[in-house]
Amino acid sequence: MTMNGNTMHRLSGVIALVVFCTLGATSWAQFPEAERWVAQAENAYEVEPNVTYLVANNYEAKLDVYYPPGSKAPVPVVMTIHGGGWIEGTKEASILRVLPYLQMGFGVVNVEYRLAKVSPAPAAVEDCLCALHWIGRNAKKYHFDLSKVVVTGDSAGGHLALTTTMIPFSAGFENECAADDDGNHKGPWIDPRPKVAAVVNWYGITDVADMLQGPHIRSYAVSWLGSVPNREDLAKRLSPLTYVRAGLPPVLTIHGDADRIVPYSHAIRLHDALNKAGVRNRLLTIPGGDHGDFTADQQIVAFEAIHQFLAELGITPVINQ
Questions:
Q1: How far apart are alpha carbons 262 and 205 in whole angstroms?
Q2: Are 201 and 162 in contact (CB under 8 A)?
Q3: Which residue in 20, 156, 234, 282 has the fewest CB atoms around it within 10 Å?
Q4: pLDDT by residue (tens digit) across 13-47?
Q5: At a CB cut-off of 8 Å and minimum separation 6, what does 115 contact?
Q6: What is the per-residue pLDDT for 31?
């Protein structure tokens, strides 16, 4: 793997840690298939960290790219978005979440975005849409298959995965991407945003307005909207439930039914709305699950469901039973 500096060695360090913690003194001949992959992943992937995909409000929004440089065919790609209530969190803190997707054969784009302390709503939504544009513009360089783009995130990242997929261009949240999309800045502008093949939503907010008042009010949502004009109207325009319609990509939602941060009702309402619109989707309920912090067994169930869901869509290979 070609790497420069401490950041470039992050994947190598993570892999070494996983191997050390899980394998101990096990001999190479005894390695199960998954551990063999972990040990060999360093040779299969390169990491390009902190690529600036957008400059807005004098803030450089960055992403990390994990890709197979030697691939002879385009590979599916997952865009992953960290959580933190739109007010905190980093892409680096969620790095372990990329490992299952790498093992499934994905390229990965790990995205950061403007938090509320830099820019309030709708900046995070705008940034993630522009990150999807970046994937479209750079697919050839990184061997991405634009027919197999998956967007995923947890909590606020789940919300952003949904909005990135569901919000139409007519909503007006992609204008900041236009100049970057058009290298000559002269037009005619061609929208490079790829059609998303599937969404994996980990306990994401689906009704932002619901978090601004009433029994589900949450300080992180109040802070994200701040004192922007027409905040209730903006909250509706930033809510995935607003954009449910026929023809959307398939959605897998994973949500604990004891979630104290994002109400489980948000997952149920999205599931019911998607069903009504005829959109293929699945709700995986984690019994007793809080806001993430699932047990190891629950995490395994979740990722098995993800792999199966994506396999059914033809995005990943079918799991051998």
A1: 6
A2: yes
A3: 20
A4: 444 444 334 444 444 445 577 677 777 777 889 99
A5: 84, 86, 87, 88, 89, 124
A6: 58
